[in-house]
Design a protein that fits this description.
The complex is a heterodimer of chains A (367) and B (310). By secondary structure, chain A is an alpha/beta fold. Helices cover 45% and strands 15% of the residues of chain A. Classes of the chains: A alpha/beta (367), B mainly alpha (310). Chain B: Keywords: Cell membrane, Membrane, Transmembrane, Transmembrane helix, Transport.
């Protein structure tokens, strides 16, 4: 018996030793792969599932392959998941291009998980509207959006509720239990927090007023959604009448016949874009840059606009079919948030939200 | 001529005379074959289970001081056990798992009993029915429950249109919703393990009980139930440990209201990129689950009905 325990222990030790070794070796191994990047036949792109996946798989990838002879493998995932995978694989990267939300572009930059981008390799970068840029020369914006409130006009008219014009209007006993807001871990949820702060005399430096308001908001809400895809059926089935979402999701709901109205509140709404980065030490760097350049070409951006995103090039506008639902006017107070600051404070406020705001959920719904 | 008589004493005497060395060699060979047959599985488990688990254990003992400065410490575990938020989440996880076990036991036992009593044809059909939910991904099943339970969803509309209630009880985004989702997902495991132990009960025992004057209830309480205990225990252990580690159901059915530990660990790792703390949370979960399961099975095996487990 003792001998078997000894053998078991030795196997475990060997396994533990094994953990360290590949990590130490791989940076050396990864190098030869880089050299062969010039004649890449395929690249791997990781990005959000759903609309981004659809646009790339159905339109952009086939055209890119036609033009460059490079096949695109698309791996769908949430932005945070992609970032943690990229971090895990940093010694042997599997992805060439990673498409993140702006906050994760910042985190990728901070952790050294993205290649610096050379504008000469991506000539279309000069045409990009700077308001969409999260981290200059690291992430190239590609799929534009605002995060904004939206409400069901039919229910609002029926009940005679005043239209929403401010972030503070989200907190009203009228529609208690009939709201769909994302949890703090989601971008839409974090946007809710800092915009409530903005609307009440706070800022990214001081989210305290936002947290206070969020507690009130929580007391009128049944839940905060862990999974943002669950918010769509909630709006469609009429389980919720008020929400905060990305404009592309609002556009999709309106497309499917839900009578929603997107609001740019008077305090402003954050304008941003899902942005493409080249993964640090990516196996096919040059092909990855070609892909990003193609992604922000006028031709591709037109297609992306057809999928409900704002095109990111200077002078381009939302697709005509979305002009009415999510089109932005010159006078709309949209702004570019400080993503660097946001990345710094996110952890701390996520913790506080979980401990202070979440317990308030539903407290005033039953009354 | 004297007939040859078979002398069985001789054979008995000759048995221990077999050389000990030969026996040992045979045993050794047996182990070798068994080892070779198990080798692929052992390698697989080692590579894809043991090594990653050890790596996560190693991570859980690293404390990050700032972005780059890592030190070995038990700080992650101290943080877990001193922060009421995480302790509450641990308690919530245990509570929801216990409810799930109770619900699936109460729903599952009658089904298992029916399966044991009916004709083989019906039993085959029932087994198929019981196992059929396992053919569908748990994500899909839980999303289905989510759509049914939504305010204004199917169940809500059914209840109000039948005039049963104006404001149906809130099932979604509550512990009740998570228990519904989990019991639905893990019920087959409970039913199948109880049914297997019911099949093994000798039917003549019940006849004997009846002859001795026991009614059906007495016979069930004194014979069937105790003899099915091994199945009940393994069902409870299976359902409890799977509920403890469930991620999809609490996230879909509980929203932010039911932060069970797997959801907390996921958030730490994926959303906050705190690998080391998330690893510690996972190991606390693993340790507590193992401890509860071990104590429970020990208690059952040494309790009143220990004879059943021999």
């Amino acid at each position: 018996m003792k001998r078997w325990i000894m053998i078991g222990l030795m196997i475990m030790m060997a396994a533990l030793a094994g953990c360290g070794v590949p990590n130490a070796k791989q940076p050396g191994e990864a190098k030869p792969a880089n050299k062969s990047s010039d004649n890449a036949t395929e690249i791997t792109v990781a990005g959000n599932g759903g609309k981004i996946e659809k646009a790339i798989r159905e339109v952009i990838a086939p055209k890119f392959e036609e033009k460059y002879g490079i096949k695109v493998n698309f791996v769908p995932g949430l932005s945070g998941e992609i970032l943690s995978k990229v971090e895990l694989q940093k010694n042997a990267p599997q992805y060439d291009v990673a498409i993140y939300v702006p906050l994760d572009v910042q985190r990728a930059a901070d952790k050294g998980l993205a290649e610096p981008l050379d504008p000469s390799a991506i000539p279309n970068m000069t045409k990009v509207d700077p308001r969409f840029v999260a981290v200059d020369k690291i992430g190239v914006p590609a799929f534009g959006l605002v995060i904004a409130p939206a409400y069901n006009t039919k229910t609002f008219e029926k009940n005679g509720w005043k239209p929403i014009t401010s972030w503070n209007d989200l907190i009203r006993p009228d529609y208690k239990g009939k709201t769909a807001f994302a949890d703090i871990a989601n971008d839409w949820g974090f946007a809710l927090l800092y915009n409530l702060a903005n609307a009440n005399g706070g800022s990214l430096d001081n989210l305290e007023p936002g947290l206070k308001k969020a507690k009130e908001l929580a007391s009128y809400s049944d839940t905060f959604y862990k999974n943002s895809t669950q918010m769509m059926p909630a709006m469609q089935q009429g389980a919720a009448d008020v929400t905060v979402m990305g404009s592309y999701a609002i556009a999709e709901l309106i497309d499917s016949g839900v009578p929603l109205k997107m609001v740019i509140p008077k305090e402003g709404a954050p304008l941003q874009a899902f942005s493409a980065t080249v993964v640090k030490n990516a196996p096919h760097k040059k092909a990855a840059m070609d892909f990003i350049n193609f992604l922000i070409s006028e031709e591709s951006q037109k297609q992306i606009a057809e999928n409900g995103f704002y095109p990111v090039l200077k002078g381009m506008k939302a697709a005509p079919k979305y002009e009415k639902s999510i089109g932005l006017k010159e006078s709309d107070p949209v702004f570019r948030p400080d993503f660097k600051k946001m990345a710094e404070i996110r952890e701390q406020w996520t913790d506080r939200w979980a401990k202070e705001v979440t317990p308030e959920l539903g407290k005033k719904v039953k009354k | 001529m004297e007939p040859v008589r078979y002398d069985d004493r001789q054979e008995i005497i000759s048995l221990p005379l077999q050389p000990a060395a030969a026996r040992k060699r045979r045993n050794w060979k047996k182990y070798l074959y068994a080892g070779l047959l198990l080798l692929p599985l052992l390698l697989f488990i080692l590579g894809f289970f043991v090594v990653p688990m050890l790596y996560i254990l190693y991570l859980s003992f690293i404390e990050m001081k700032g972005e780059t400065n890592a030190v070995y410490s038990i700080g992650n575990y101290i943080q877990f056990f001193t922060d009421p938020y995480y302790l509450h989440s641990l308690w919530l996880t245990i509570k929801v798992s216990l409810y799930t076990v109770i619900v699936s036991l109460l729903l599952g036992y009658p089904v298992a009993l029916t399966m044991a009593k009916c004709s083989p044809r019906v039993r085959g059909l029932l087994t198929l029915l019981v196992a059929s939910p396992l053919l569908i991904s748990i994500v899909v099943r839980n999303f289905g429950w989510y759509l049914l339970l939504l305010p204004n969803g199917t169940i809500h509309q059914l209840l109000t249109s039948l005039g049963i209630t104006e404001s149906p009880p809130k099932l979604l985004f509550s512990e009740a919703g998570v228990v519904i989702g989990l019991s639905n997902a893990y019920l087959p495991f409970m039913i199948l393990s109880i049914a297997t132990s019911l099949y093994n009960i000798d039917p003549s025992l019940e006849k004997a009980a009846a002859i001795l004057g026991a009614g059906p209830l007495r016979s069930f309480v004194s014979i069937t139930l105790p003899l099915s205990l091994p199945g009940i225990v393994s069902g409870i252990v299976l359902v409890f440990s799977m509920s403890m580690s469930a991620y999809v159901t609490p996230a879909l059915m509980g929203g932010a209201n039911v932060p069970m530990l797997p959801v907390v660990a996921y958030d730490q790792i994926i959303n906050l990129l705190r690998w080391t703390y998330g690893s510690a949370v996972s190991y606390v979960l693993l340790g507590i689950t193992l401890a509860i399961v071990t104590i429970f099975t020990r208690m059952m095996e040494r309790g009143r009905y220990r004879e059943v487990f021999r």
